Description:
CATH class: Alpha Beta
Order of helices and strands: HEEHEEEE
CATH superfamily: Hotdog Thioesterase
Radius of gyration: 14 Å
Number of helices: 2
Strand content: 35-45%
Number of domains: 1
Structural class: alpha+beta
Shape: globular
Amino acid sequence: xxxxxxxxxxxxxxxxxPFLLIDxxxxxxxxxxxxxxxxxxxxxxxxxxxxxxxxxxxxxxxxEMLAQAGAVCALCLPENKGKIAFFAGVDKARFRKPIxxxxxxxxxxEIIKTRGSVGxxxxxxxxxxxxxxxxxxxxxxxx
Length: 143
């Protein structure tokens, strides 16, 4: 059962359709960790061109999904209310298995380091319990 639905997510992060890429938050420990999900529909706009005969989730969009989940974790802290979490970097990204139309992607982010308004999250995207993408994502909180 979802802890936060799409409307509640939009109260925390500024992303909107067609670029709000998480559907629900399942677990949340503000400033520490988050678990969110994205249910990939067959008709997601990016599948039409990536690739027409063999649709596969673009890796960069999976990283963006992880970043948005991490943003929920960081921006739900009272001191960050109304701010924006900017993507600041990606390290150690590994794409381990393809993500396909119809998959449900579980997005797990644990904030492993913060210093002032900058932080790093350990991010994992899973499909059917198997790691599809892992990375360290950096962010900066801004106005």
